[in-house]
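Changelog note: in this version the structure field was regenerated for every chain. One regenerated record is shown below for reference.
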Amino acid sequence: MSVLLGQILDALGGELVGGEREMPISRIAPLDSAGHGDLSFLSNPRYRQQLAASQAACVIVAPMMRDEAAQRGACIVTADPYAYFARATQWWKAHQQGGRPRGIHASAVVDATAQVHESAYVGPQCVVEAGAVIGADTVLKSRVTISQGCVLGERCILHPGVVIGADGFGFAPSAGQWEKIEQLGAVRIGNDVEIGANTCVDRGALDDTVIEDGVKIDNLVQIAHNVHIGAHTVIAGNTGIAGSARIGKRCQIGGAANILGHLTIADGTVISPTSMVTRSLPKAGFYTGIFPLQENEQWEKNAATFRQLYTLRERVKKLEQALAEGRQSNNGN
């Protein structure tokens, strides 16, 4: 189903250059594969060579690309093309599929003491346990579990298989065995949080596990008990965050990163994919904790050297000291 370009402009704003509001738009597509009737975008100047060759009906661009884009054809000029593209996808989905769903699917199991806002949606085979709270316009897709006493804010999206509030991994050693530590806290999730498929957020041992407003979490992420994640942080897939870690606001955590327990990460910190964070990061920055990818034979040699770094450092210090003493002796003569 196509829409008119003017409908998008009315909803999202932007300056139309070199085109007509009545132009039909049939889909949103990448710049290099867009065809006639498609809306596309250019946010990174590195891909400007694709602009002239693109068959898109209209391209979303920044002011600096205005003249170049206008030579090709119709364009929408906006300060942040990537953000405009994101809002365009939201508008498109709402226009094509309607607004967010509402209600409780017939196959869902919702405890009588749970509070589900009338505008929320609980999808097929979801489970909402006793005392849980689901905020306005929040969407639980299929097979999501919200455990006892956990709270979700407004406009959240939880994808299939998410588990909120399973027991944290807490056991006390006792006479060669393990005594379970009952997890007596819950999980509190703020507004506008999105959590990817099959991600688990464990309930707190005593205090709650907390995810603040605007956090975005990818698929297959493990968040352990009593973790606190600051507002508008993004976490890519396969990341593991151990118990009682505190992640600041507006952090970016790459895929398959691991953060040890009881650490504190400063606001605005960026962590590279597959990094292992073994200490607190009190100062915001861009951190990487991995070996570069290389041939295995070379990696084995470097890894063997890495294990000897401390010994090599001590040898270098002694050599430097001996050289310094030798210079002093020569100067004395």
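Spot check on this record: The two ends are 93 Å apart (CA to CA). Residues 103-287 form a domain with the UDP N-Acetylglucosamine Acyltransferase; domain 1 fold (CATH 2.160.10.10).
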